[in-house]
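Ticket opened by: R.M.
Priority: normal
Category: complex prediction / small molecule

The reporter submitted a protein together with iron/sulfur cluster and asked that the result be attached to this ticket for the collaborator who will pick it up next week. Submitted input follows.
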Amino acid sequence: MSESLNNSSLHDVSACAITRLLPGELSMRISGTEKTLFDKVWDSHVVTEVEGETLVYVDRLLVHEGSRHSFSMLRNIDMEPFRVEQVFGFADHYMPTGTTEGGIPGVKDEKVRGMLELMEKNTSQTGVRYFGFDDPDQGILHVVPPEQGISQPGILLCGADSHTSTHGAFGSISFGVGASEAGHIMATQCLWQQRPDTLRIDVDGELPFGVHSKDIILGIIAKFGVGVGVGNAIEFAGSCIERLTMEQRMTVCNMSIEAAGRMGMIAPDDITYEYMEGRPYAPKGTLWKEALQYWQSLPSDEGADYNNEIQLNVNELVPMVTWGTNPEMCLPINGEIPSPDSGADDDERQEIAAALEYMDLQPGMGMEEIEIERVFIGSCTNSRIEDLRAAAEVAAKGKAKVQTWVVPGSKSIKRQAEEEGLDQVFTEAGFEWRQPGCSLCTALNGDLLNDGERCVSTSNRNFKGRQGPNGKTHLASPAMAAAAAITGKLTDVRTLG
Ligand code: SF4
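Result attached by the on-call engineer:
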């Protein structure tokens, strides 16, 4: 199945590009004006344009248990998925992470069990490849596709979750869609969209000791605001980004949506190709060579125009932690909680006051004075093997003072971590080693904070109640979360040696 997908998907992309172009236009495009990475991928997916709206071809669709309405849509109009081999399903949002013994029938919560049963039924009836409850590669929809080679450069990928931007780390256009859009894609493999503006964020410099890719994206949002990328296709570039591993790039692109970007992208390079080669759904043999040639043409041309450009130098970046109720309310760990008076206008002053009240914090408090009750290391932002290694390195320095969960992003990551002995490091430090899934990122599976608890979380959203009723979330990197676990308060991981 993977080989046939490889063949069809590569040809689909080429066919889509060729059918749209007029004679002579292809060579004009190749030798014409400079284009950004986004322009190249977008232009090769345009099917038609009508009154400012563009119909784009979708190479991959990712769905999860919450996508039941998309399947109902198809059933209601008596249709089957148009190209079912390009749709992938995942058991993640509702997966139990305590125990999976007894299979789906063993899931105690009736609603959670019902969602899992329904997804099994929907995917088996339609023939969608399902990384389900019992699949050896089950995991989060933004973790498994990169592992499997489903996420590839130059494709257009949609997912039924806003953090679909993660896959842009491979140089693809990847964005989240709602249930009816996912249904439309299943039926037609196309989607109407408006062409977004482009924003280039150059990230230069060397990451200092104790500073991770999570700090880069939190640093960008703290500096430029949650609205900096509104509606834009954000391309992350610069010397720092070029040195990041694929897993680090995924963390950055994952949270581009928290900067209001429509998507985040990073140009593919040798790091990308090395990561992808040999993965189950990656092209093989001659197709790999053809694909590589296409991928190598994707990075933005020198002198290509963006609608907006901003820069961040990371040489002085410090580990970042959110203090408030959106990711912009974020400070270096050695910072102090702001006063409402620091707001630029009345709206901002009210926002700060409301966040302080909800988070039960006082202006002027040092970040490191904040005591916590829970730690969550997981989610599609930070549950990959490098994240777990970073957390384990810190966990080895002490014992958990608060309840701490480690939730790998997939079964494959769980296996690898266990082979490396990371699970032992965590359990010896008193951390709880759990089953893969979304878990406390969004708390849909019943994994919840107790009422009002304060949690350091490696996830991507610190909105009110996201992790449970009145829950107070502080977003941080895996290393910073592990540091908080062994001290019981927000802690500068750099001081732990
Ligand atoms: S971990 Fe959180 S953000 Fe990621 S897919 Fe799951 S619920 Fe969505």
